[in-house]
Write a structure and sequence with these properties.
The structure is a homodimer.
Chain A: E1 8-11, H1 22-30, E2 37-41, H2 48-61, E3 66-70, H3 81-89, E4 92-95, H4 100-107, H5 111-122, E5 125-129, H6 131-134, E6 139-144, E7 155-159, E8 167-171, H7 179-188, E9 193-197, E10 201-206, E11 209-214, E12 217-222, E13 228-229, E14 242-251, E15 255-257, E16 262-264, H8 267-277
Parallel strand pairs in A: 1-5, 2-3, 2-4, 4-5, 8-9
Antiparallel strand pairs in A: 1-10, 6-7, 9-12, 10-11, 11-15, 12-14, 13-14, 15-16
Helix pairs in contact in A: 3-5
């Protein structure tokens, strides 16, 4: 069965841009390697020129000839025919970090938004780091307190760009001590798996299968079988009780079946078996 | 059945000493209230005079008349008859923060060590905060990197004072992003439950039953039923994979059965039922 949509490359922020650039290389490989046509969307950042130039530099350094950047500062520009054309021509689209609300505010519901979803369904690779990672899900974490125990009030959520359903994504995860806020998010709707992605670490998602690459780990927080939660009784600033959360720590080489909520300890072996059986 | 040993009050550091002092009050209540004879052991800190004076002040302020401090700077002093006498006279013994290795190095195997265990078995309340919390277990976390994904090399362990078996304790837990290091500790011996205690939060342990009090939460990390771990294959600096860790977030009002590895969502209700059935 052919893949219905292109791969998502969801990066936990601070990906290596000066050394081997393994995550960005993998992103480009998925979309044509040196023949890739990379579009860097800098809408999340208030420094689009600087951030755009940095990504042009790194993508060119790893061998991509065709790298462009795209930015808008008002929604009208996200309805322009020229913008749609840039998206239609790209094989890899990458969202930089910044503020995830800028992405949804400036692009949400525009023609660019529709063109991005069409591109994704056509098989185009979509990537994003930090804010560009958060916005991938249907409900995204907008902001929240780190280094605290879970309480409903410590996490702010908003609609995301809906490239990946059934998940809530957090980034800079171990580095900023964000377990409490991710637990607060999934506690509120345990249908959502919590994906906590470390810095310089990414998940590649295809057909509801997730593969981990990079230097850190991905924490998967599954509150689906929680045996007790006090969410219905606590005030927003009170401490959450959560009993029986499943936690999976997945470094590179591991994967996860998002629909079955099952870890894949050895991704290569799993892929090999799957290919043999198909 | 009478309790075999006195309660342990294990505090995640930074307990309130200027406001309501709820944790320190509870500690004192367990050992006689205003008639308690409190001994503060400052062996962990290099500032025993300052830290000792601070605790004398706070315990006196909450109504304890008899507060003493005890410190040693060499092991000989921990074999002195006067030291044993101080321990024998106390109804509440509290270990301050500092460096947990100072506690085991200076007290381990001395007559004071034996007297502390005798006191504990006699029913005396033993408390400890931060370093004084870490040392409570048989194997203690000595040091380790925070805000990182789990790897064997990020946690250093050593023998603890053995007041509580079957557990490894970490403190300042959410505040310092220490999930990675606690997972690294329990991954190495999943018989140990990981207790991650937040600041101004404590567990009271009696007869293998744990009760949570304070402002934050206690994270209980149970790797007993891990379905996959790569611990046998990773180098010490490589990322650990751990699938199927059970995580319980327990704020005040909750408890935990350490032997059965089961959370108690409502401690008061549980206690009431237990009393009815006994």
């Amino acid at each position: 069965m052919a893949s219905q949509s292109g791969p998502l490359v969801i990066v936990g922020g601070a990906e290596d841009k000066t050394g081997e650039c393994r995550i960005l290389r993998r992103f480009v490989e998925l979309g044509g390697g040196k023949h890739a046509r990379v579009l860097v969307i800098t809408v999340a950042t208030k420094l689009p020129v600087e951030v755009g130039a940095e990504y042009i530099d790194v993508f060119q350094r790893i061998g991509v000839e065709d790298v462009r950047t795209f930015d808008v500062s008002h929604r009208d520009a996200a309805n322009a025919a020229s913008a749609i054309q840039m998206i239609e021509q790209a094989t890899c689209i990458y969202f930089t970090g910044g503020d995830q609300l800028r992405i949804t505010k400036l692009l949400g519901g525009t023609r660019v938004d529709a063109a991005l979803h069409e591109a994704h369904h056509r098989g185009v690779v979509l990537g994003g780091t930090s804010a560009g990672a958060s916005m991938m899900s249907s409900t995204m974490i907008v902001d929240g307190q780190a280094e605290t125990n879970p309480r409903p009030s410590i996490v702010d959520m908003a609609p995301g760009m809906e490239f990946l359903d059934g998940c809530v994504i957090d980034q800079h995860f171990a580095q900023r001590g964000r377990l409490g806020r991710l637990l607060s998010a999934v506690a509120q709707y345990p249908h959502h798996l919590g994906l906590g992605i470390d810095e310089d670490t990414a998940v590649i998602v295809r057909d509801h299968v997730l593969q981990v690459i990079g230097r850190g780990a991905v924490s998967i927080v599954d509150a689906g079988k929680v045996s007790y939660s006090n969410l219905d009784r606590v005030r927003r600033d009170e401490s959450l009780a959560l009993c029986g959360v499943q936690l999976h720590m997945l470094p590179e080489g591991c994967g996860f079946l998002l629909r079955d909520r099952k870890p894949i300890p050895d991704f290569e072996q799993w892929l090999h078996r799957k290919e043999l059986s198909s």
